[in-house]
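Title: Prediction job returns without error message
Component: structure pipeline
Severity: low
Priority: P3
Assignee: unassigned

Description:
Job completed but the reporter wants confirmation the result is attached to the right record. Sequence as submitted:
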Amino acid sequence: QVQLVESGGGLVQAGGSLRLSCAASGLTFSSYGLGWFRQAPGKEREFVARITRSGSITDYADSVKGRFTISRDNAKNTVYLQMNSLKPEDTAVYYCAASRIYTQSISGMDYWGKGTLVTVSS
């Protein structure tokens, strides 16, 4: 049974930082590309960042480029999202997801976590 469990969300002031973690189990972690997505209230889920199986290639949405960093530790079966210079518009539920292919497509992800809430106050 595959599980992805996010943690690290919370309330932070604008300009602050948070580090999200996503611990995976039940799958061969190093065989999956990983992504972070987010869904703000009343909006559709959107791509945030992705990383290849080895961690050598990353990609970001324009809205977070230069502020967020995705990384992974295959020895710990964990993917991270370091979020700096947070803005109120970053407020959302953040989800990690795993895919057998390197994609930013929501429909292309094979497994999803349940999400962690990030709230950025102004």
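Comment from assignee: result matches the submitted record. The CA atoms of residues 10 and 119 lie 6 Å apart.
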